[in-house]
Design goal:
Helix content is 25%, strand content 23%. By secondary structure, the chain is α/β, with parallel strands linked by helices. It binds adenosine-5'-triphosphate (ATP) and magnesium ion. The site of adenosine-5'-triphosphate has 15 residues, from α2 and β8.
Length: 559
Amino acid sequence: MSEETIKPSHFIRHIIDADNASGKHGGRVHTRFPPEPNGYLHIGHAKSICLNFGLANDYDGLCNLRFDDTNPQKENEEFVSAIKEDVKWLGFDWADRLYFSSDYFEQLYTYAVQLIEQGDAYVCDLSAEQTREYRGTLTEPGKNSPYRDRSIAENVDLFQRMRAGEFEDGARLLRAKIDMASPNVNMRDPALYRIRQGVVHHQTGSEWCIYPMYDYTHCVSDAIEGITHSVCTLEFADHRPLYDWFLEKLNTPHHPQQIEFSRLNLQYAITSKRKLTKLVEENLVEGWDDPRMSTISGMRRRGYPAAALREFCERIGVTKADNSVEMEILDSCIRENLNENSPRAMVVLDPVKVVITNYPEDQTEELNAPNHPQKEEMGMRIVPFTRELYIDRADFKEEANNKFKRLVTDKEVRLRNAYVIRCDEVIKDASGEITELRCSYDPATLGANPEGRKVKGVIHWISAEHGVQAEVRLYDRLFNHPHPDSDKSVDDFTTHLNPDSLITLTNSMVERSLATAQAGTVYQFEREGYFCADTKLCRDGKLVFNRTVTLRDTWAKIN
Ligand code: ATP
Ligand code: MG
């Protein structure tokens, strides 16, 4: 490859470059993202979406969105619409190329009859258990089914009657006739069709009582759509001979090339729809879009920018090596984006009152604060300053050494965007809890220190009169184990749920400008982290902020 590309190259791009050079697919690049609508998409799917749609964009090609919907019992319309929303939100567009494998059920049936007529498929009456027995093992070959040599006419008749609903679930299978002794178990006469009576399919209703298997459906759907590069995860490498066998036997007009890459595993997270389903169904989280979930909808609600997820998928690269990506890589993509783009604001998570004794009682000063320290174009906002303020309880100590650069009795600190104050007196209640700090301010210190005056610390604050009460949700990792689902020492991955993954603060105060915060906007709350106005819970004047990510990586220190 001599051509300079902006994006880092990888082996799939090399394959496409070689194909384009040799004219293999007439220079076309046509990919697809093929989710099964049996759950919400997760961060692993984001990688596949970015890869498939990204390749199409880079090579002036096309990418289809295709629902692989051959398993109606586990699928539904809610999942279909959630998946569409997630792909769109990630920034990709399938234009008019939204497909369902079920669109091809009739064609798949016709192709199956063709296989029967060619002597390449047969109806088998073995029970599920017998079928398993006959299949053999990784070390021993399988045995031919006693039904393998049925006549073509009998097979055609039985298959038609399967479709007509004459047989019970499990009574018969249509199977490919390949090789029961193949070292590749996938080639030992795999099933093509199974019977599913009485199931209502979200797209085809009650039209069918037989459903094609994934391996058969997938390659035929790819071929029908004229896909050139069928990109999938590594576990399908052993299925590729079958993918090619079907397409060769059927002599389809297109023969896409299957290419496998390694799936994304993210530390401290789950990338399996089945396990995410368990978390939802057992109410271990607050739904698919719980901001702690590694689902795309959860991450969106938490405030992760789509561009940061795309950057993450770019940064982790595409290889064939099994790997497990550190959460810090994702976090740093989020931080970099938000540091650049999010407006600043002040929140006091755990308020303690400050009274400025030398400040007039009925005065409000409208101080100006920049929305972003480096980006003038993001403008200014007004923060009202009054005699009574709140600061964070953690920003005050009665006594402290010089390392504590916040407020200490008889010492000074700067209030961000405002004045320098000194703490003169601490008021406590009967239990010894601090209820109020009596301070004085220096009018000569607005915005900057006068010549020769050094005040080390800067803390954030909110006018007691103008601040607005808010609920703040501090999220941490959902799991406290880097590989919750591959730890063999526990029976169940949920053992590794982090009990402190959500801390809800109900008494926090945010500055006045946030009273009208648009749901979904992410702010940098100065000194505290990035927080997103919750898209579900901010309503009727209630303010709820989700912590998107901390300012720095604090996890490493705690553990
Ligand atoms: P799950 O096990 O979570 O259900 P899946 O592979 O069964 O995942 P599909 O809906 O079939 O889910 O996946 C759609 C596409 O996304 C497939 O091409 C699949 O290979 C890809 N994909 C799924 N999980 C990952 C992952 N962790 N990393 C990269 N790609 C993935
Ligand atoms: Mg799947």
